[in-house]
Amino acid sequence: MSSASVRRLPGRTLVLAAAMAALSANTFATEPPSAEEMWRIIQAQQKQIEELKGQLSKTDQKVEATGEALEQVSTASASSGQGSTSASWAERTQIGGYGEMHYNNLEGSGGASDKDEIDFHRFVLYLGHQFNDNIRFFSEFEIEHGGVESDGSTLDGEVEIEQAYVEFDINDQHRAKAGVFLLPIGIINETHEPNTFYGVERNQVESKIIPATWWAGGAAVGGEIGSGFSYDLALHEGLNTDSAASYKPRDGRQKTSEATAKDFAYTARLKWTGMPGVEVGGSFQYQTDMTQSNDPTAGSANLYELHTVLSKGPLGLRALYAMWDLEGSGPASIGADEQLGWYIEPSYKLNEKWGVFARYSLWDNRAGDSTDS
Predict the structure, then answer these.
(1) What is the number of domains present in the chain?
(2) Is residue 152 in some structural domain?
(3) How confident is the model at residue 105, as a pLDDT?
(4) 65, 80, 95 — which closes off a domain?
């Protein structure tokens, strides 16, 4: 038997072949045997082969039993939360957060444009967990303006649950979620950490008109539909504003705090990111009554939003337009039936952490045709 043929044999056959080769070498070292001697040799070889087979069978049984025992130990460790499963649970849990302390020194004609202030604006903690390949949880806990006092006498802050939702994959392209989540509108509403936008404060158009940061309780689906397009559809709590708040959307956010749910809102977004460094998107929201039936002089509300984000090397450009169209004689009487704004923001990155920008923006929460002078 050549060495080449031995290398092609499986492990067990190699052992048997080696035994036969050893017997043959010892047996035929002298003169060729007679027929009777050959028969005795063959019988002896057959006996040794049977003994080797028996030993291999016992070895296989021991290996199989060892494997079953290891599997039982692994299962027991998993059920008791010990061993490698415990490590995997920790690896699938994410904890993070950020904080912002602002200093503003502004001069203007007074009011909001005249400010000399230092403020620990927000402290945010993230907690997320990946239950399996298809189901995950994410939450965001926020304390604003240094905290709150029980009687509200000292600190002017808020404690809020900004996000807390469960998301699951429908398939590789589509997903669904339910809970409290950020609405898919504008540029910074979903991604608003300090290093994702220029400036100390968030821009006024997305703050006063959209209004970021805007979250709500409800359910949503989203996903990719090919050629760089993605979509989001959401059903969620609506705004609850009135004439006392001049029908401003920002004052109508309910933040899922015992939110009145007589009238839900519907939000849809379509976004295209089919080219590196390019995002073009638009959002639409509809609500039958943005006062939750509290103001008979107000009616439905429609929000239209368009934006683009361009990035090429160190150069960047952001532009956004948003407009509210409110029905009813109440909003029209004070010019709040149209509330709109837009901005354009070119920028240049000096390095990964520093950059310069310029922003031109206009916004008006009373851009409609008011019957008042």
Answers:
(1) 2
(2) no
(3) 87
(4) 80
